[in-house]
Write a structure and sequence with these properties.
With about 70 residues, the protein is mostly helical. About 35% of the residues lie in helices and about 0% in strands. The model has no long low-confidence stretch (mean pLDDT about 80). This is Metal-dependent amidase/aminoacylase/carboxypeptidase family protein.
Length: about 70
């Protein structure tokens, strides 16, 4: 696992959080063996597809945890 410095996303996502409970987090998805990956809006962006399962589980956990607390 590799820890990165905190970043502030410049997304319109903040507007959603004004209306609905929300959570924003990054999923590391750099393909194995790639040292200098392209960011997600770049045409050469590539993803480690194994990370998709981890991301789906993480999002599912956040949603389930939210509804268990109510």
């Amino acid at each position: 696992m590799k820890e990165l410095p905190a970043r502030f996303p410049s997304e319109d996502f903040a507007y959603y959080t004004e209306k609905f409970p929300a959570c924003f987090f990054y999923i590391t998805c750099t393909p194995k063996g790639v040292e200098n990956p392209y960011f997600n809006h770049h045409p050469k962006f590539d993803i480690d597809e194994d990370a998709l399962l981890v991301a789906a589980k993480a999002v599912g956990q956040v949603v389930c945890s939210y509804y268990e607390c109510d």
